[in-house]
């Protein structure tokens, strides 16, 4: 039924465009009456020749207003780093060899789910960049403790498998970035084991010699016990290991270490990798933010000298003022922690503990803050990641409406927006880290081909919302909502690239209205109006929003529809409208 329904959707979308205008029109088409313009679905649609649900069957496979209107949008090709990025934990994504562990071959098989390379298909999620959590050899399931930075962990495949994945990504217009944890290595890395063996071989009071063992300079060794340090077994020596003893911190002041890092980044960039996600940058120098920023500046310069188009995004888990200052390094992006997690701006707005207008105001404020450190910054908004409880658990008794709205808020922010795998399905997972990295919920059948078993210590729990298999044919599912939100983001390039300006006349505790404009370009400006309440709201188009008269895209959480009549915009509960001039 999927393809016939898509045909119906396209036909209905054409009918809708006659009444509400398209994304690229300068003026709306004439409505049936002089003062009324709506995006309502036609009352009667012939299904002759098509499968029609019988009485008692769910009608959720019928196209929603959201699908009908948004199907006419045309996603634009991304030629820069303002993208929509999908974070993948390979271990739990898709298994191609039957061992229960996800691998690069499995991810390659599922690339069409992320992006099939055809903007017109509408069958894919639409993400245009992939962030791979660590894929290098490691003794742990999470692989943030590396033993070889220039190879692939055997659980995931080979370098040849990686090259094939990369080629398939590029063929679809997907860029790929690697997770690079260089604050520390594994204690099983040859650099560390060689240095530890050398220290064990020294007489008790002898001092190590870099000439005899260069690797003793790769780490921060000392004879003094201190917090954040672990003892080298069998010696009186200690080494810095701020996370745990299995992750010895590198000495980033060492010229030899910096040469190694430059060789590593060059190795992957030469293979065609599009950039790196930098892990734990605020821990580069635990006691000195300025030294951490300076090192990140060196790393940014090094990578850009190897490939000026390479993209860098860094994790600086700190308050906004602190991670904003890291933009002084010249890095492209810093993850925007202020908006993320269960107590971030997005969740507070969705819960109603923060006014809707505060969402727009916070975006305005941070855009000025980041630009003050680096005018060429690219924000990296995200809602959840592998270290955070999944968002479905943030909202008690949620029927999916809150989860959907929160996902949209993230995707309507500027910059390169990140989506953690499974969030588009409303997957669950909280508590220990393993629970947050559960198998991708392709199907309810845990024994189905390709399904992963998940991390060994993951607890058993049931998902709140159905699997992709079910959600893909439900017009009101979390998945279909996310797919539409990404399509809107990709179809209006100004959403990612423009500047936010709150329309105060239209905004209040429950409504957030803002324009997104990129001065000096031909990018079409938009007005975004968000109803963050559980009741329908009618908002007059006023202030700087009065010029936006074409209803070009919508996001709805139910069958209730968005309507524009004259200058009166009606939004259903949790509804969102995108208007153009």
Number of strands: 19
- The percent range for helix content is 25-40%
Which blocks of ≥5 consecutive residues have pLDDT under 50? 1-60
Structural class: alpha/beta
Q: Major sheet: order of its strands?
A: 10-9-8-4-3-2-11
The separation of the N and C termini measures 36 Å
Outline: globular
Task: Work out the helix count.
Answer: 15
Overall mean confidence score, pLDDT: 91
Brief description of this entry?
With 581 residues, the chain is of the alpha/beta class.
Summarize the structure in words.
The chain has 581 residues and is of the alpha/beta class. The chain contains 15 helices and 19 strands. It has helices at 2-20, 65-70, 104-109, 111-114, 159-171, 190-201, 255-271, 289-306, 320-325, 345-351, 356-373, 401-411, 468-471, 478-491, 494-497; strands spanning 37-38, 84-88, 129-132, 175-180, 221-222, 229-231, 238-240, 275-278, 311-314, 333-334, 417-420, 499-502, 511-517, 526-531, 537-540, 550-555, 563-565, 568-571, 576-580. The chain has a seven-stranded parallel beta sheet with strand order 10-9-8-4-3-2-11. A five-stranded antiparallel beta sheet has the order 12-13-14-19-16. It has a four-stranded antiparallel beta sheet with strand order 1-17-18-15. Helix 9 links the parallel strand 9 and strand 10. Helix 10 (345-351) packs antiparallel against helix 11 (356-373), helix 10 runs antiparallel to helix 12 (401-411) and helix 12 (401-411) runs parallel beside helix 14 (478-491). The longest helix is centred in the first third of the chain and has 19 residues, at 2-20. The protein is globular. The two termini are 36 Å apart. The relative contact order is 0.12.
């Amino acid at each position: 039924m999927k393809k016939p329904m898509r045909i119906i959707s396209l036909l209905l979308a054409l009918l809708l465009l006659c009444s509400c205008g398209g994304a690229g029109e300068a003026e709306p088409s004439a409505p049936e009456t002089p003062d009324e313009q709506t995006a309502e679905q036609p009352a009667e649609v012939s299904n002759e020749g098509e499968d029609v649900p019988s009485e008692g069957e769910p009608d959720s496979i019928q196209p929603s207003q959201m699908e009908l209107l948004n199907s006419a949008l045309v996603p634009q090709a991304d030629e820069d780093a303002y993208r929509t990025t999908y974070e993948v934990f390979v271990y739990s994504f898709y298994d191609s060899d039957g061992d229960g562990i996800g691998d690069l071959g499995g991810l390659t098989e599922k690339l069409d789910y992320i992006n099939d390379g055809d903007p017109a298909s509408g069958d894919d999620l639409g993400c245009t960049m992939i962030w791979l959590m660590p894929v290098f050899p490691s003794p742990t399931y999470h692989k943030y403790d590396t033993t070889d930075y220039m190879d692939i962990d055997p659980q995931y495949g080979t370098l040849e498998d990686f090259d094939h994945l990369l080629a398939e990504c590029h063929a679809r217009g997907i860029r790929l970035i690697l997770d690079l944890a260089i604050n520390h290595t594994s204690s099983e890395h040859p650099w560390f084991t060689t240095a530890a063996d050398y220290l064990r071989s020294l007489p008790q009071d002898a001092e190590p010699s870099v000439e005899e063992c260069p690797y003793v300079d790769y780490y921060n060794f000392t004879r003094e016990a201190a917090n954040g340090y672990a003892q080298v077994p069998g010696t009186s020596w200690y080494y810095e290991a701020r996370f745990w003893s299995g992750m010895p911190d590198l000495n980033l002041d060492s010229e030899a270490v910096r040469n190694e890092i430059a060789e590593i980044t060059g190795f992957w960039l030469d293979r065609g990798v599009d950039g790196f996600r930098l892990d734990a940058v605020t821990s580069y120098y635990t006691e000195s933010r300025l030294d951490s920023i300076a090192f990140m500046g060196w790393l940014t310069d090094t990578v850009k000298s190897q490939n000026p188009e390479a993209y860098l995004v860094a994790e600086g888990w700190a308050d906004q003022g602190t991670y904003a200052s890291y933009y002084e390094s010249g890095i492209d992006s810093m993850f925007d922690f202020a908006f993320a997690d269960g107590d971030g701006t997005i969740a507070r707005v969705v819960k109603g503990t923060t006014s809707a207008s505060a969402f727009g105001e916070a975006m305005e404020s941070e855009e000025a803050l980041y630009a003050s450190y680096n005018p060429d910054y690219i924000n990296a908004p995200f809602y959840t990641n592998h270290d955070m409880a999944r968002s479905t658990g943030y909202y008690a008794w949620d029927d999916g409406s809150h989860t959907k709205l929160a996902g949209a808020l993230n995707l309507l922010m500027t910059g390169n927006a990140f989506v953690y795998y499974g969030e588009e399905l409303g997957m669950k997972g909280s508590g220990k880290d393993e629970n947050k990295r559960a198998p991708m919920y392709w199907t309810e059948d845990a024994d189905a081909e390709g399904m992963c078993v998940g991390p060994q210590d993951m607890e058993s729990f049931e998902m709140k919302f159905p699997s992709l298999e079910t959600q893909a044919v439900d017009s009101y599912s979390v998945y279909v909502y996310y797919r539409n939100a990404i399509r809107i983001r990709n179809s209006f390039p100004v959403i990612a690239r423009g500047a936010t300006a709150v329309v105060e006349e239209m905004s209040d505790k429950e409504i957030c209205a803002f324009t997104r404009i990129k001065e000096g370009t031909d990018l079409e400006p938009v007005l975004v109006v968000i109803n963050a309440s559980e009741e329908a709201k009618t908002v007059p188009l006023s202030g700087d929003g009065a010029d936006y008269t074409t209803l070009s895209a919508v996001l709805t959480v139910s069958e209730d529809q968005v309507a524009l009549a004259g200058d009166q915009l009606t939004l259903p509960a949790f509804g969102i409208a995108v208007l153009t001039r």
